[in-house]
Amino acid sequence: MIIGNKSEFAIEYELAADYGGVWMFGMICYYIKGKQIGDYELGTSLRDVMFHIHKKIRDNGKRIHEELFHLSKFDLFNRLNEVLYGYKDSEYEEVGLKEMWARFDIVPRVDIFDESKVFLVEDKNQSRIVFKEGLSQGLRGIHEAYITKGAFDRVIFETYKQLDNIYDLELMKQP
């Protein structure tokens, strides 16, 4: 199942043939401007993904930050990455916590996305995604894409609804 448009932003998922009931084992990945993010073939629990993306939905419409939006892709990626995942102190740590910068991190923290960092920041007119696939590529591995404002929110919400419906059906089968 593909939700969204791969040439802008999309999520692709499918349940495995033997998906384990409520565990909902399957495959999932993001597409940003046609580039696949996540190890689709590895597979994961789509139930766990569903729980993670539910948290992302709460941040829909709350990713506007004019200052961050206008940074270079390298500065934007590094600033968010240092505050959210850094192993050393960052001069932006305090403001990042105060302003809840975790809302800009848009991938579920499950195994298939272990090698991926993806951040979405908006201004009043558009959405900007900066991402890195493969953690050992240094600065040359940082990419950016501008997408229609609200596209991510729509896709993530629809994905959640579909996975939640599957989960509810599986729960009803439980003794």
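^ that was protein a. below is b, sequence first then the tokens
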Amino acid sequence: MSTSQECPDVIFNENCEQVDSSESEFCLNQIVVYSLVFERGYLLSKGTTMNNCDSGRVAMTEAEEKLDRLLSDDGWIMCKQTKDGSKVMKQHRANEPNVYLFTGLINGTTVEQVATLINPLGPYRIQWDTQLKQIELLERVDKENVTNMLKIRHLTHSRLKGLISERETVDLCRFHSDNGRRVVIMTDTTHPSDVPKPGVVRARTHLSALVIEERPNRNVNLTAILQASVFLFGLPSVVVESFFPKGIIKFFDDLRKASQQNIIKNDSYEMPPGW
């Protein structure tokens, strides 16, 4: 994109509606949406508005392109490997949070069963995920489910006897399936109904993704990407960074146990659009 292009004289609020550009105070989400629109070349003239669905498409396109680059990158360093063959690899770039790549195999199950356990609209995720305290659907981005996007709130338990507080994120999630695999991609967003709560840290979701793929003999391969950053006062960064590989492996272990315990009693619950 040419650097000579002028920045459009238009500002959007958290619902991606045009507001008076003379207003000097606007929230972080306005800046994010505005920069994404400009960066990707969607130069909007005065009088043009962007609805919630359009802004979601722009943000998700950014996330998917970054995911493609990460998956094709060979600059991964082994971080942790378990006895069952699961691997966590790490990639670090200057001025960016670490990115973690997980791969692991679940035996004796199917893609459909694993997707049912992960389904944010069903009852099972909160039963088996020991790190998750609450999951809530905040919004269907478009009623026709053309974009397959949902806004979901995740609340995790506190850890280390309260040293790490309960943390919540508001995530824009896109679900799709192709060639027998299920994919969900998540990135940070906001929602007007979800205001900060006392004692709960509002965290930001960097690019995250989960890919569920069928393997021969009723095996399922999971690939997960998590980009995360956290600062805990008084703890060395190397200690803090060790939490992420452990958290990823714990999620996988919980999911595998749930799959082996056959906790699915009813698979008629609504699945996310695209799944």
